[in-house]
């Protein structure tokens, strides 16, 4: 059983804002977002009500997977600035009461990383076993993706994701071929130790933790439940967590029972289908065969779907129990850099209801940059390994100036949304009933209400088949809040559960004696 390191207190009130650095704010006119640009927008992020940042990888990279192909973990990519700029970002964030988590990619490097350059050499050396090499140049890789014919070394090597991303060697759960090293064996520990050093490098310079890429992918051919990968994380955390008790680790894993045993503080509920079936998160927002068009869509928050919340809860509640057992959390996201944005498939009203729900449920929520103004998904040609994800990665739309205030260059990293009516921060902040203003109001309420912390109590009040209303409480005793959400087109009602006033509402929600009447497409917090 894993040692359960206490989650730092700041995670209990954290509201994350995910920044895709190349698309957020350019400061030097080269068309690419950068760290000084991000620093200049911290007050904006704070004004929305977010108090924590997740920055996608900002390290030296050939950018064949937008930076998830790291060439040097200890060096900020020159296009984003310098290491001093990143340290300045930590300082500027801390000065505003904000925390910053970086993106750690432990499962693979770029094929241009110096470890890999050394590992490719035919003669044995310090890095020969840092990656997974077979015994001969003709070997296939026991069912894993591999590359042959690219290295002088007489062996083939295993990939973790793209061709440019060779897998680091954390060993095999059950080594059965001569080239397969054991999990937590000497070679695997050397890799894990190197990753601990990288964490230490940034934590000692002011980072507040990491979002960890493909955290479940470390040990190859691991068993059901990932026991060997879990032990590998326990091994790394035993070295690093006692030294940095205020740091937090959030896993890209999607299975909290496993990620919590590994020692993470939080896990993400991701836009992933398991075995072709929608998971709970999909059922909320992305229960469709084509996330770019409204078409046939069974998502709970699509008013036309008529879907109820029971499918989501069936999947979510066991995961919630797993995180509650260890004081961890399970994060809901508005979107991320791998996922198609909700606009324009869902209407602004549908998104407002969805965000109301996401921000009042347990867990530290993650807002993807631009979702607060309703930036839309666009079909674009691929950029830096983005493929269909590229259309969710376009420049932030700040104002109505050329290139929406993102850059002074006429050649932005990706094209700015050319639609004359495309929302901007300026336009949405000015519109009183905009999604932006609804979010900001709700985040203010969240910050003032102990019932809405990451780990405060959650109890289902009403969730029924065939009923679009979902009602739940957060917190306990006098501080308790009742949240009602009805994305459907018919009104529904539910008991008031001791609440006497509507604190915040979208649409029409009223108290009628001891009943709460929730109009079509409405949301409310009651106290
Ligand atoms: C997950 C990341 O979120 C994604 O953007 C990346 O392409 C893969 N992992 C590979 O690192
Ligand atoms: Ca720049």
UniProtKB/TrEMBL annotation:
Q: What positions does the domain Glycosyl hydrolase family 13 catalytic occupy?
A: 18-407
The EC number on file is: 3.2.1.1, 5.4.99.16
Keyword Disulfide bond assigned: no
Q: Where is this region: Disordered?
A: 386-414
For this protein, the record's InterPro entries field holds: GH (IPR017853), GH13_cat_dom (IPR006047), O16G_dom_2 (IPR045857)
Query: GO MF terms on file?
Result: alpha-amylase activity; maltose alpha-D-glucosyltransferase activity
- Locate the compositionally biased regions of type Polar residues: 389-411
Identify the keywords attached in UniProt to this record, alphabetized.
Glycosidase, Hydrolase, Isomerase
Has the keyword Protein transport been applied to this entry? no
Would you identify the family this protein belongs to, as annotated?
Belongs to the glycosyl hydrolase 13 family.
Q: What is the name attached to this protein's record?
A: Maltose alpha-D-glucosyltransferase/alpha-amylase
Provenance organism: Arcanobacterium wilhelmae
